[in-house]
Amino acid sequence: MQLAGQWAWRFLVVAAAITVCVYVVAALSEIVIPVLVALLVCALVAPPMQFFQRLRWPKWLALAVSLIGVLVIVGGLALLLTVQIRSGCGFTRWRSCSPLPAAPSSPAFPGRSSLSQPLR
What we know:
Elements: H1 2-27, H2 29-54, H3 59-86, H4 94-97
Helix pairs in contact: 1-2, 2-3
């Protein structure tokens, strides 16, 4: 019984801590979101920058090349995603492009619905 009480107490403390963290992030979203984006950019730029510095490039040049490279890669992925969605196999036509079989009453089969089928 004591073991269950100890685990319940720990669970409540962790749940309360998560709730407080979520509330603080929501309340300070104008500050927290840009900081998280900056951390993501730093995490993406750091490895190529270290690589270029090992090749004895100046810091400013390594940073510029790494940052431009990361921006080009992220921009290319965003462009690829946009082209794929606009080409027609987006959410609206997902059922017809899906490798999964569509049910006869789905929008992929507009002429056949479960209401138009005769009762057996």
